[in-house]
Write a structure and sequence with these properties.
The structure holds three protein chains of three kinds. Chain A is an alpha/beta fold. In chain A, 31% of the residues lie in helices and 23% in strands. In chain A, strand 1 and strand 2 form a beta hairpin. In chain B, helix 12 packs across helix 13. Chain B folds into two domains: 130 residues, no CATH class; 218 residues, Orthogonal Bundle (MetI-like fold). The two termini of chain B are 53 Å apart. Chain C is built from 16 helices and two strands. Chain C is mostly helical. In chain C, helix 1 runs parallel beside helix 5 and helix 9 crosses helix 11. Chain C is flat, with a radius of gyration of 31 Å. Classes of the chains: A alpha/beta, B mainly alpha, C mainly alpha. At the B-C interface, helix 1, helix 10, helix 11, helix 12 and helix 13 of B face helix 2, helix 6, helix 8, helix 9 and helix 10 of C.
Chain lengths: 294, 432, 462
């Protein structure tokens, strides 16, 4: 098991966010933590982020964001481009480590462990928190090898039959099995865009993670393929916790239970998806949802 | 953990089970990579150290202090001071006399020959030159530092082991004793060897210099530059700015890319068959060498020039065309000046390649043993790398030192050229 | 050199023509104020006149110079006595050489006969006449061109378009040089090779197991016919290239991976240029290093181990050639590895792969075609490499796979056969061209395949 440090030191300085001009927290009954309108907590959190700041070099990309991600819920992160929603998502499985100039402050916990603890190992973390990217990025290998990649490197199965089973289950869950079961040894890059993205989802769930992060998974896909993925996300919710970044408000409304609205690196408002889309409490959220900018 | 599903626990446990092993593999891979880099750097260091340690001493030459008497009866018995007589006189005899007076005890022919062998045959040339430039010297005495023979040179530089048994040493015990006497008197010492940098080739290692080869390289490079730069730039301009996309230009492109990878010796065969046998140009001439090297470096220059032209943004062209400039005016007034630093960088790198090239020049006869320093592009000449090749083949121990030193000079030129190219690129680099 | 002077005079005339043409265009429209009435800027009229003045004259001069030596030679031969003319071409060439040397006042091998002196005088006279004629023809052509160009200048004349089309054709001309070079290579080696195959059957050349081109000088000497079987040469070439690849591929590839995937920015900033120094070192330096340091080192250490190592072992040449190729492999691999999209790395890392797993299982397989292309280019380089093997490999053609023995290569044989005195009709000399043809074809195929693979690879990720 992973070593869990009981007294996790909060990295960096947790600074109180200053609400700049233009932000007007309207509703006074809202529980505003760190300037965020709405309830950032979850009754049954899987991941908790507190006072997260992210810097690219000297530039502050995420400013003091706190948010819970609950078990078996789909949380959607929306906001105009450049608002930091993808950056925040990438913090959740430390994919930002691959960017040299990126620096993360604050505390993010998966279950009980601080994932930015210096003793933490990213390899098992990423096995627990999988990620699906904006552009479908299957490896230039066969469909089977794509899905089997995770189980193989992590040594999840001990024999070929188990591996076959894992691959089949993952493809079944990703809703791709029927389409590819006869051509598992064809190259993954030969599939259509929507199929490729489902293959990438299958690749992620083959490792059996606890959380799946999805970074605009449908932005490169056509409407039919998008609908297929959205259905899939809904089905996957029963077993996984899903955080999805999307620029499409309709998509957020369709697939998520909770929605977080980001603006210029700040988390402006969080709430039940129905509430956010029907009765936004912050003016920026309202402006965005009603299409005044985006 | 909050709500551990069964298979999730399995996942993380299994991941952790193999984790240590995976990290070991990771470390191994990383170390292997680092080892590869270090090995590569080690090779660089090894070559430089090897060459410098062998070659630095060639910039110094062992000279012996001799008391020379310019005897009238040897140089000019008739006293007419006729240049022809002065030129043909036996100056070696003067050196021999000086040596005999130094070691009067030496008797016997073999012994004498060893004694005379201590001083280079070049010493006589030094004396002749002095007398020719100043005939007044005749009849006077002078104390001069004269070059020692290459074996003595090697001994003084410590390249011949004094403690080795006589049978395994190129220097006899007797000679060694003489040298040690000279050393005791301070009459033998190492002095800066200007002749190595300015002189022509010679069969005698202590007299051989790289001056001729450097001049040969210079003429060859000038020819190469004069031909390859305009042709290369023109080709790049045509392909990048004027040529329609069709099969002909595709053919030209494929051709250029292939020529860049054709073995250099094949260019030598081309030069031999076309320039020398067909056009009847002289062998060993820098002109022909330069023409062959032009064909060789053209692909490099063309590829670099095209990259430089590609880097000029289309907006510049559109701006010029938009105010009514013709295609040619646009290219020559705006695009070409902006691309010029890149083209020059490519050209310098091409020239550096040409400077180091040997094989094709062997084919066109630039391997001849040439003592004179060439005075033009039509004179027989050799070039620096070929000189290195020739000396590397020579059996004398002293030539190894000369070869290494010539390599140092060659590498010095190459490093200089590359530094200029880097500075040029840094200075004029533009980000659009 | 008198031709240089002639060219300088021509350039002067062109400058004059430029001024005249420009002035005339300005005068025709009544001074600088009327330039708007001209079709083109005055300088274009100047260029136009200068082109008319210089271009035809320079072309004629060039043709004259390149053809005159052949013509003069034929004329001199035609005047030689019957006995000399009947000599075989090789010896006739020597005689002509002597005559030329005599005419230029150089030292001549052998004694000088009266006939030779007369021929030399004849040669000298012909050269002088030719030069005088060329001066007259070229200069009058230049003046004629100047006046034609000058007369053509008029306000409505489209000088700019004419000048631009001349420039364009000049550029086109330059771009064809690449084609002519390839053509020249093919034709020159092909013709000599065909002559070679008339003397030695092509089958014997390609499949013969014996290579000993030491032909006798005189026909009646013993063992006058050499053996020209190319197999041992290729075996030797491939053996050395293989050793080189065994050194260069792992080191080059691993250092590229380390530098692009692991090394910190500062380490990379100085390690990469230092490694690239290896690419800038001339091959003759590697040859020296191989022959005088590595080969004795291997021989002595082999002797310590009780192995019989040749002092010209294939191992020494191959090892040093490998060092030479390291930067080649590493920079090509570096390009190829960097071309693998970041999204692949993200996908692998995002699933929890370690860095080396990502490199080994995702990046390398994805980059494989590009790397293979790079290795093919490197092999082609190793096969065509000359100086290292000339200096460090042997001369005798052994058919062996033992890297401790001495082998010879195709390039070594080309150099040995062509350097030094040569007669142009012996199979020995011509064999070098046949080897050159073979070398050219093999490297050409390797290059074409490699470039194609690399291009396809690049396109796949663009």
């Amino acid at each position: 098991m992973l070593s869990i440090t009981p007294d996790t030191v909060v990295l960096g300085t947790a600074r109180k966010s200053v609400i700049t001009a233009g932000f007007s927290p309207v509703a006074d009954d809202a529980r505003a933590i760190n300037g965020t309108v709405g309830d950032i907590t979850s009754a049954d959190p899987r991941m908790t982020a507190r006072n997260v700041n992210v810097y690219y070099g000297d530039k502050l990309a995420i400013n003091n964001v706190s948010l819970d991600i609950g078990v078996n819920e789909v949380i959607a992160m929306i906001g105009p481009s450049g608002c930091g929603k993808s950056t925040f998502l990438r913090c959740l499985n430390r994919m930002n480590d691959t960017i040299d100039i990126c620096r993360v402050e604050g505390e993010i916990r998966l279950d009980d462990q601080d994932i930015y603890d210096s003793g933490l190992d990213v390899v098992p973390l990423r096995a627990q928190v999988g990620m699906v990217f904006q552009k479908p990025n299957p490896f230039p290998k066969s469909i089977y090898d794509n899905v089997a990649y995770g189980p193989r490197i992590h040594g999840l199965t001990s024999n070929k039959n188990d591996l076959d089973e894992v691959v089949e289950q993952a493809l079944l869950k990703a809703g791709l099995w029927d389409e590819v079961k006869d051509r598992l040894d064809e190259v993954g890059t030969g599939l259509s865009g929507g199929q490729q993205q489902r293959l990438c989802i299958a690749r992620t769930i083959a490792v059996a993670p606890e959380v799946i992060l999805m970074d605009e998974p449908c932005s490169a896909l056509d409407p039919i393929a998008t609908a297929r993925i959205e259905e899939l996300i809904d089905e996957l919710r029963e077993q996984y916790t899903i955080a999805i970044v999307t620029h499409s408000m309709q998509q957020a409304a369709r697939v998520s239970q909770r929605t977080a609205y980001f603006h210029l690196g700040e988390l402006v408002e969080v709430g039940k998806t129905d509430d956010i889309f029907t009765t936004p409490r912050h003016r920026l959220t309202e402006d965005y949802i009603t299409g005044r900018f985006g | 953990m909050n709500k551990p599903a069964v298979d999730q626990i399995r996942t993380i446990d299994r991941v952790n089970a193999t984790l240590k092993q995976r990290y070991n593999r990771e470390r191994r891979f990383r170390r292997f990579g680092l080892a590869a880099v270090i090995l590569g750097l080690l090779f660089v260091a090894l070559m430089f150290l090897n060459i410098i340690s062998h070659g630095y001493s060639a910039f110094y030459q062992t000279r012996i202090l001799l008391d020379i008497e310019y005897r009238q009866e040897v140089i000019d018995p008739a006293g007419a001071r006729d240049p022809a007589t002065l030129s043909a006189a036996d100056y070696a005899a003067l050196v021999k006399t000086a040596l005999r007076t130094l070691y009067p005890e030496v008797k016997g022919r073999g012994e004498k020959r060893e004694l005379y062998g201590m001083v280079s045959s070049g010493a006589a040339l030094v004396l002749r030159q002095r007398v020719m430039s100043d005939p007044e010297l005749i009849g006077s005495r002078q104390t001069l530092w004269l070059p020692a023979d290459d074996d003595i040179d090697m001994l003084v530089k410590g390249r011949i082991d004094r403690n080795a048994p006589e049978s395994e040493r190129r220097i006899k015990n007797r000679v060694l004793a003489w040298v040690e006497q000279l050393e005791a008197r301070g009459a033998i010492e190492k002095q800066f060897n200007l002749g190595f940098l300015t002189g022509g080739d010679s069969r005698e290692p202590e007299l051989a210099g790289i001056g001729g080869a450097v001049m040969g390289s210079l003429y060859t490079l000038i020819v190469t530059l004069l031909l390859s730069f305009p042709i290369g730039v023109a080709t790049a301009l045509y392909l990048e700015e004027f040529a329609p996309r069709n099969r002909w230009t595709d053919l030209v492109e494929v051709n250029i890319n292939n020529l860049a990878a054709v073995p250099s010796i094949v260019f030598g065969l081309l030069g031999l068959a076309v320039f020398i046998n067909f056009f009847g140009l002289p062998r060993s001439a820098p002109l022909v060498g330069g023409m062959v090297l032009t064909l060789m470096t053209l692909p490099t220059i063309i590829i670099a020039s095209r990259a430089a032209l590609k880097a000029v943004p289309p907006s510049i062209r559109e701006a010029a065309l938009g105010i009514g400039a013709s295609r040619t005016q646009t290219v020559f007034h705006h695009v070409l000046p902006l691309a010029m630093p890149g083209m020059l960088t490519g050209t310098i790198i091409g020239m550096a390649q040409a400077l180091g090239e040997t094989a094709p020049l062997l084919m066109i006869g630039m391997v001849a043993f040439i003592v004179d320093i060439p005075g033009g592009a039509m004179d027989p000449a050799t070039v620096l790398p070929v000189q290195i090749f020739l000396w590397a083949d020579s059996p004398e121990r002293a030539f190894m030192e000369k070869t290494s030193a010539a390599i140092m000079v060659l590498l010095g030129f190459l490093i200089l050229m590359n530094v200029i190219a880097v500075i040029l690129r840094k200075r004029f680099e533009r980000r659009w | 050199m008198s031709n240089t002077l002639l060219i300088l005079i021509l350039l002067g005339l062109m400058a004059l023509a430029y001024r005249l043409g420009m002035r005339r265009s300005q005068r025709l429209v009544g001074g600088p104020g009327g330039v708007r009435d001209l079709h083109s800027l005055p300088s274009y009229y100047g260029f136009f006149t200068a082109i008319w003045c210089g271009l035809p004259a320079l072309l004629v001069l060039f043709l004259w110079v390149s053809l005159q030596s052949g013509v003069i030679r034929d004329l001199v031969i035609a005047d030689l006595p019957e006995a000399v003319r009947a000599l075989p071409p090789a010896q006739l060439g020597l005689v002509i050489n002597d005559i030329q040397n005599l005419a230029q006042g150089n030292i001549v091998s052998g004694e000088v006969s009266l006939e030779m002196e007369r021929a030399a005088a004849h040669y000298q006279r012909l050269r002088q006449t030719s030069f005088a004629a060329s001066v007259v023809v070229v200069l009058s052509l230049a003046l004629l061109g100047l006046s034609v160009g000058w007369r053509l200048v008029s306000p409505t004349f489209r000088a700019r378009n004419r000048v631009e089309s001349v420039i364009k054709w000049l550029l086109v001309g330059c771009s064809t040089i690449a084609i002519f070079t390839t053509l020249g290579i093919v034709l020159s080696v092909l013709f000599e090779s065909i002559r070679f195959f008339e003397m030695v059957p092509i089958g014997e050349f390609l499949f013969g197991l014996d290579w000993s081109p030491q032909m006798a000088i005189r026909e009646d000497q013993v063992g006058s016919s050499g053996a020209f079987g190319v197999i041992p040469l290729f075996a030797g070439t491939l053996l050395i290239a293989l050793i080189a690849m065994l050194v260069a591929v792992p080191i080059g590839l691993m250092s590229a991976i380390y530098l692009s995937e692991y090394a910190g920015a500062r380490f990379r900033a100085w390690a990469k240029p230092l490694l690239e120094i290896l690419a800038g070192i001339p091959t003759v330096v590697y040859g020296f290093f191989a022959a005088l340091t590595v080969a004795p080192f291997i021989r002595d250490n082999g002797a310590l181990l009780g192995l019989d190592v040749s002092s010209e072992s294939a191992l020494a040449a191959g090892l040093v050639m490998g060092i030479m190729i390291i930067p080649f492999i590493s920079s090509l691999s570096d390009d190829v590895i960097n071309a693998v999209p970041q999204s692949m790395r993200d996908a692998s890392l995002g699933i929890g792969a370690t860095h080396s797993e990502t490199v080994r299982k995702v990046i390398l397989p994805a980059a494989l075609p590009g790397i293979v292309g790079g290795i093919l280019l490197a092999v082609s380089r190793a096969i065509g490499e000359t100086m290292i093997v000339v200096m460090a490999a042997g001369l005798s053609a052994n058919l062996t796979a033992n890297p401790l023995q001495s082998v010879t290569t195709v390039t070594v044989q080309i150099v040995t056969l062509l350097v030094g005195d040569q007669e142009f009709d012996s199979p020995k000399t011509l064999a070098a061209f046949a080897l050159g043809l073979l070398l050219f074809l093999i490297t050409l195929v390797l290059n074409v395949v490699a470039l194609h693979v690399v291009r396809k690879y690049r396109e796949a990720y663009e």
